[in-house]
Amino acid sequence: QELDRVRSELAQARESSAADLARREQLEKSARDAASDRDRARANFTEVREQVMKCKADLLRAEAERDNATNQLDSIRERCQKDLENLERRASQADERAKRLESDLNEAKSSLRRKDEFYEEKLKRSEDESRRQQLRDEDSRLNRERASRLQYDEEISKLRDEAARAQADVVRYRDMASRVEASTGNALDRVHAAEACCDALRRRLDDLTAELASRGEEATSLTKDAKADREKLLRLSVSEGELRAKVRDLEKRAAKAEQDLTRESALRRRLHNQIEDMKGKIRVLCRVRPLSKKESGDDCGVVKDGEGSLTVLPAKENQEKKRFHFDAVFEGVKEDNSQAKLFEDVRHLITSTVDGYNVCLFAYGQTGSGKTYTMGSDSKIKDALDSNGVIKSESAGIAPRAAQAIFDILAERGLDSNVSLQMFEVYCNNLVDLMVPPRKVTPMDQGPSLKITLAEHSSTGLVQVDGAKSKRVMSAVDLVNALSDGIQSRTVHATKMNSESSRSHLVMGVTITTTNKRTGASTTGKLTLVDLAGSERVERSGAEGQQLKEAAAINKSLSALGDVINALTSAEGGHVPYRNHPLTMLMSDSVGGSAKTMMLVCSSPAHANVAESVSSFQFATRCKDVVCGSDPRAAAAEIAKLKAEVARLKGSSRAPPPNRPAPNVAPRGPATLAKRHSRRNG
């Protein structure tokens, strides 16, 4: 819950950070838009200012032309009305005009200086480099205007020269007087046109000045907006730093919570394993099926008399009752004997398999006692699950329910997993791979050659069958469908005691390899489901011919399993004869050692089957006495370690240096190492 809360806070912080980033991007975009608007306003301001300067220049030129035309008109009139004295007076007026031009020039220079000071102040107040560049451009234009003023000075000097030359032109003016009279009217028209142009230029100048003022106000507003946006961005940067610090804190808390979760998972796994070990190395559940139609007229010879005990009534009056105690007893036709109720005791072992332990569930009993129904390994297994991998049939046995439980636990823990299946049939002492598609061969043909490697001799600590096929499954439905395909190839015949008697042992091995996404730790567990063929009496089953051979092979393999159980319960703790039969070799990693085993002893309640029931109960009682042995995986790892040590010693065996005596070391050859390994196992 702490991890979920921290993850929720982390997700909220990330969402808040993302929202702040979005707002920041929006403000940055707004700032960019404001900057672009400001640049456009500045460009418009520059353009308007250039137009103003152009209009002023045009106005000055027009005024100069008007003054020039007026003076020329006055002088012409005076020259027309007066004699040479008037021409001399005109020369003096020219001098006065030169003086006025000088005064105008001085005023223009003072105005130019004021403009220079104004633009220099603007240049000092401006923070934008582009405006400074524009003001520099303006300075360059003003310099050009200064150059033009210098040109005007030169023109004034030229006018003075012209006044000096005016005396010489008097004669020429007299000749021109007549022509000037004619051009006077045209000059007046030009003067009126110049005055109209000056008025238009003044109006245009006023309009441009007003527009320049509005543009300046707009630029000021945009500058304020940009400053406000910069302040907002600064506040967002501070908030983003706080959020990042909070995110780092939440990530640290999440990492600590994940470490705590890993610790708690390891503790749960260890405690769960200890609890299952306290229940016994081989737990025995007894299931007594209801009377069949053939047995409806017979008396009940097996009676449940307690939570984990039952009593077998004697077949003869002079015999005593026999009472047996098991871990649990299921009897009757009510819900207490349902498939779901039985699987409640099995589910904990499925959890141990996912935790990385070897688990074996095998059904034992006489033929027709309900072993195949209990294991769910019949031809109807494919109908046990729906398309979502959920049990839909109440009659579904252990195999399909285990398939659902495996993938439910994997999904709940969120582990990376690899689930694979192997299926074998032990028929007439021969091993048959049921994962190979069925062929048109005789029942005695076992297909490809299969070689079994015991768990204690394999590198993985699991039984290995060379030449056998393994199928990876991705869901509970895939696993059940694969089981169904293999079950279709199992050998089944009808006898007098069972219409669908299993004539072979069915061994289903589900290997589960899980990887923790947080730590990368990998564990491997194996679930072995064994549907043993039923023991039978030939005189009652009516077996003959091939069925007689099958019955003999079944009884032989069950005897080999009994020898293994006897060796495991022996106080001497000697050799366990796994190699006596292919069945016990396949079960070598599931019975004994550190494996968790559950036996499901199935029985008929009929009084006629009391002898077979007692035999099954006695075998189940011996199974309960199995004690904890060595772990095949640990032994395999130790053997691999010893082999590596032997190889290292062989590779590093060299003579001692000449001046150094050989150390007195006890021999550590392969035989010594093997003895040491045997002492450790002892």
Could you explain how this protein is built, in words?
The protein is of the alpha/beta class. 59% of the residues lie in helices and 13% in strands. The strands form four sheets. Strands 1, 5, 6, 7, 8, 11, 14, 15 and 16 form a nine-stranded mixed beta sheet that branches. The protein has a three-stranded antiparallel beta sheet with strand order 2-3-4, with helices on one face. Strand 2 and strand 3 form a beta hairpin. The C terminus is likely disordered.
Compile the SSE list and pairings.
Elements: H1 2-81, H2 84-125, H3 129-166, H4 170-278, E1 282-288, E2 302-304, E3 309-312, E4 322-325, E5 328-331, H5 339-355, E6 358-365, H6 371-375, H7 398-413, E7 416-427, E8 430-433, E9 451-453, E10 464-466, E11 471-473, H8 476-487, E12 492-493, E13 501-502, E14 505-515, E15 522-531, H9 538-541, H10 546-569, H11 582-586, E16 596-603, H12 610-624, H13 632-652, H14 670-681
Parallel strand pairs: 1-5, 1-16, 6-15, 6-16
Antiparallel strand pairs: 2-3, 3-4, 7-8, 7-11, 7-14, 9-10, 12-13, 14-15
Helix pairs in contact: 1-2, 1-4, 2-3, 4-5, 5-7, 7-8, 13-14
Give the strand tally.
16
Largest sheet: 9 strands, mixed
Tell me the overall shape. rod-shaped
Computed structural class: alpha/beta
- The percentage helix is 55-70%
Q: Ends: how far apart?
A: 46 Å
Oligomerization state: single chain
Mean pLDDT: 76
- Relative strand content: 5-15%
- Tally the helices: what do you get? 14
Secondary-structure element order, N to C: HHHHEEEEEHEHHEEEEEHEEEEHHHEHHH
Low-confidence stretches: 653-682
Global Rg: 56 Å
